[in-house]
Amino acid sequence: GFKDMIGIGQEVQREKFLGSSKLDFLVGNTYLEVKTPLQQLQITVPDHVKTKKYTPFSSTDRFVRHITELADSLESHQRAILLCCFIYDNPGFEVIERSTNYEQVKAAVDDAQNRGVEIWQANFCLTPEGVALDKYFKTNV
Question: pTM score, two decimals?
Answer without folding.
Answer: 0.79
